[in-house]
Fold this sequence. Notes:
By secondary structure, the chain is mainly alpha-helical. Helices cover about 50% and strands about 5% of the residues. β2 (about 120-125) and β3 form a beta hairpin.
Amino acid sequence: MKRKERRTAGRAAREGFTLIEILLVVVIIGILVGIAVPRFTGRVEQSRVAAAESTLKSISTALDLYELDMGRYPDDLEALEKQPEGADNWRGPYLKSGIPEDPWGQEYVYKHPGTHNPHGYDLHSLGPQGGEPITNWE
């Protein structure tokens, strides 16, 4: 009977993973995560930039519609949402869902007349932290 117990105890010891094997698996998983995360975060940032560019175009279209109705560009972006005083030709709101924030939670910056577009307007997002701004000028 003692012999049978020894065999069972020996088999149980051989069936589990050693600490070295577990550490090796953890290291491999860490390496894979270290490779995958930077690639994923790069794609997220690229999609945010694309979303900001798309929103910039939508706001630009709304500004151009305002200019067609009013004969000039607005002093601020709020005029796309709420009728300014004395604006009898206003046919807004020109943005259906209000004035959006950029994908980084900041307001879009609008300036009329523009520094880069003196006969029009400058519109830009500050972009990702430490990155280039996304603009309506080249």
